Amino acid sequence: MNVISSLIEGFGENCLIFILTLVMAIPLGLIITFGSMSKFKPLKWLTKTFVWIIRGTPLMLQLMVVLYAPGLLFGIPMKSRMTSVMIAFVINYAAYFSEIYRGGIESIPKGQYEAGQVLGMTKTQVFFKVVLFQLVKRITPPMSNEVITLVKDTSLARIVGIAEILMCAERFTKKGLIWPLFSTGIYFLIFNGILTILFGYLEKKMDYYRG
After folding, report:
1. pLDDT tens digits for 171-201?
2. Angle at the Cα of 44 (from 38 to 49), degrees rounded to 5?
3. 0.85 exceeded by the pTM?
């Protein structure tokens, strides 16, 4: 029973990282998108450089940098390992989400924006009444892939000492028990299976529009 309770506690850490990352990274990614598409060139290139750095380096490295850099560079060590994990995960996934948003927005024909403005609609009205639902449909498949990847990436939190489910299973594996390690695979398969079904359902619900 001690093994099961430990794995459940680890499962809770994975779920916490997953949920908080989505809640914070989804809106932050949209803000980053606006920056990368800004007509103000310094902001545009600064944002694009930031996204390039985040996407071009491993999440594992980012976790270690966020945890140790403040203390080594500024003498202000991170007091909470979970806080450092959340900062790294949110920044990483916000950068990836921003590129998905940008690709979705740029895939909408400019003629639709122009037609809306000809009808007397403001740019905001065109976006929310004409573009938004098309955008949501187009970004759902790539977003679902990133969300599923996030489920698996939560296991990287063990790098900085967070006792997520894989770390908990490893502790028992070192004591001669192998089944806890395999049970973590079942956890990830079930979690991702549920998400796959959910996103498949959402895609079917949006089939009313074929643009």
Report:
1. 888 888 889 889 899 999 999 999 999 999 9
2. 150
3. yes
Residue with tokens 């192998």: 178
Report, in angstroms and rounded to the nearest whole number, the Rg of the chain calculated over CA atoms.
21
Burial (CB < 10 A; 0-12, 13-18, 19+), residue 170, is: middle
Mapping DSSP onto H, E and C, the string for the chain reads CHHHHHHHHHHHHHHHHHHHHHHHHHHHHHHHHHHHCCCCHHHHHHHHHHHHHHHHCCHHHHHHHHHHHHHHHHCCCCCCHHHHHHHHHHHHHHHHHHHHHHHHHHHCCHHHHHHHHHCCCCHHHHHHHHHHHHHHHHHHHHHHHHHHHHHHHHHHHHHHCCCCHHHHHHHHHCCCCCHHHHHHHHHHHHHHHHHHHHHHHHHHHCCCCCC
Alpha-carbon torsion (115, 120, 121, 122), positive or negative: positive
Could you tell me the two tokens for 11? Answer: 């499962």
